[in-house]
Amino acid sequence: MNGEIQPMMMVVVALIVFGIGLFGLLIRKNLLIMLMCIELMLNSVNLCFVAFSKMHQSVLGDLTVLFVMTVAAAESAVGLGLVIAMFRTLKSVDTDQIQILRD
Amino acid sequence: MTGSMIAFAAFSTIAIVGSLLVIFRRTPVASAFALVLVFFSFSGLYALMGAHLIAALQILVYTGAIMVLFVFVIMLLNQDSPITDIKESSLLFKGIAGLACVGMVTVLINAALRVSGLAPTNIYTDQKIEELGGNLRVISELLFTDHLFQFELTSFLLLGAIVATIALSKRQRKGGVS
Description:
- The complex is a heterodimer of chains A (103) and B (178).
- Chain A is mostly helical and 103 residues long.
- Chain A has three helices and no strands.
- The longest helix of chain B is centred in the middle third of the chain and has 26 residues, at 52-77.
């Protein structure tokens, strides 16, 4: 360890956050919170990219994070647009309310 | 125990506790602010690894742009009352989901440990980056030479996202299909 931060420790933290995000995505039914959990997972993947690129002494991981951030921004914009559209038709953001096809 | 170790411990603790708060708080606003906490601590972790550009962009893009969007939508939908959706899913389902997540994290950590044994490429060591003029310069030079095509493609992605968002959230005419 010798006092230095190992990239592997960063990866472990990132993966724990990824697991928490996945768990939240599975147990919550509010669409807003589910989108937040997706953001959590995207962030932890970004941290993994940076840690791996540090581990292999390359900067390509940092470069990939830039593109992932762009995709995440676009994703959350479209996702929140969908949430608003759903709220407008169903007056709710609960995923249990999406049952038009069942009726 | 060096200073960077203490910072790492603090940031990672904040990140994990914050992400637990995100999924267990009742009100969406509380979750959103816990998420801001997580983003800030992630930015600190990036800075600890020397990825200064990513650390700055993390705060600008996530905390500045995406969280504002989230808080704005929460305000728009008037979702400030506590919600009880977390109680609705059965304990059995929660248990299975928790087990699956723990299993997945274990598998991923195992895989990462296996990968960590590979030899470093030695292309951009810390010293080399220092000589070339720092993290920001190295990344931007790569971005605008070798990866210019992908960089330009993201503009199409953003354009598509703008069009999609406007089409989704535009107020429909009377009698129109929403």
